[in-house]
Amino acid sequence: MTLQTERLRTVEQIKGFLDGSGEVGFKPADREEAYVFVRRTLVRLDYGALGRAGKGTVREFLMKATGLSRAQVTRLVAQHRETGRIEDRRGANSGRPFERVYTAADIRLLAQADEIGGQLCGPAACEVLRRQYEVFGDARFRRLSRLSVSHLYNLRRSKTYRTQRTTFEHTKPTAARIGERRRPDPDGQPGHVRVDTVHQGDRNGAKGLYHVNLVDEVTQFEHVGAVAAISEAFLVPVLEEMLLSLPFAVLGFHADNGSEYVNHQVAAMLNKLHVPSFTKSRARRSNDNALVEGKNASVVRRWFGHDHIPQRFAAEVNDFSRGVLSPYLNHHRPCLFATEVRDCRGKVRRRYRRQDVATPYEKLKSLTDAERFLKPGVTFADLDRIAYAASDLEANRQANDARDELFRRIGQVAPAAA
């Protein structure tokens, strides 16, 4: 800009200048200096009186001398033609970015919540954030309570989040003549439960304990237990206790074809509890028991990992699962519930919408005339005292601490925070 460009007063002189300065770049000291230079050049060359080719040459010269883009030069020329002036129209906040909706403190808070909750899927994680503010009144989560699922993953990829945080088989079925081979149809009523067993590994030929996972199909109420072995002597008492712990009556019991459940002892226990339906999975229909098998991975493996746990600790693990883990799962851990939608071809598809995410207890309360499903002597007032005694994150933290203490007594390292 300090070159003697004032001597360039014709289009031909500018063409010669451009031809001789092909490898030279110019940059003004600031934006205001560039605007002054553009205005003086337009006035000196009488830009409005030039032809099409001459105007193009002048614009190319302005782009070369100021470093502005073609669009910027075009806007400045148009402004000079309309007003006779060239000025900065960006306003008082020019050059300032938009205010961030989610601050660095919010991202660190999200990282802490994911650390406690074990980084749930997007809809469930957003539901935890919403409940933490709207249900439990934690003001720190005011902005995060409105976080969308898509932007949640953006924040998880941010540098602030990544510096804050440092970040698995089906049983083989066996044939038996006990139970009806069909998929149960709950018809929207809670009490139709699915059950499966998860083995906690072998070591040096020694068997580990077994987890018993029981899930209600409609509300996803879940109870987890532990037994030293899957023989009837160990399994039936724990299974009966788990069924009695549900706040609603059991109307159906569904298992895969494993002999630990499809036997006369379990059938007799179900008959004693007046369970009217006993079903088992159909051949080559892997989805018949998919709900509880999915919970095996997302709950049991997440909380207990895959390492061997000796059978002698079955009672301690069962106490933890019954007294700490199961209440947390049912009252504080959001689950995804499907909405069936029929497409244009008549095919029914499942959609998992954000508004359908809820805890199992919330799902139970949302059912039409939900009180009629409760067992005699069980009320929602009593269940509310359990559900809202602590926030979701506080309950998750307490469960993590109890699990870590359990693994210290076992002599193992606890899996990553669940």
Query: Count of DSSP E strands?
Result: 10
> Strand pairing plus helix content: what structural class?
alpha/beta
The percentage of residues in β strands lies in 5-15%
The number of helices is 15
Largest sheet: 6 strands, mixed
Low-confidence stretches: none
Sheet with the most strands: spatial strand order: 1-8-7-2-5-6
Compute the average pLDDT: 86
N-to-C series of helices and strands: HHHHHHHHEEEEEEHEHEHHEEHHH
Shape: elongated
Distance from N terminus to C terminus (CA atoms, Å) equals: 63 Å
What Rg, in angstroms, do the CA atoms define? Answer: 34 Å
| Share of residues in helices | 40-55%
Description:
The protein is an alpha/beta fold. Helix content is 44%, strand content 10%. It is built from 15 helices and ten strands. A hairpin with a 5-residue loop joins β5 and β6 (222-227).
What is the topology?
Elements: H1 11-20, H2 31-44, H3 52-66, H4 70-83, H5 104-117, H6 122-134, H7 149-156, H8 159-164, E1 180-181, E2 192-199, E3 202-203, E4 206-207, E5 210-216, E6 222-227, H9 232-245, E7 252-255, H10 264-272, E8 277-280, H11 290-304, H12 314-331, E9 339-342, E10 348-351, H13 360-366, H14 380-387, H15 392-410
Parallel strand pairs: 1-8, 2-7, 7-8
Antiparallel strand pairs: 2-5, 3-4, 5-6, 9-10
Helix pairs in contact: 1-3, 2-4, 6-7, 12-15
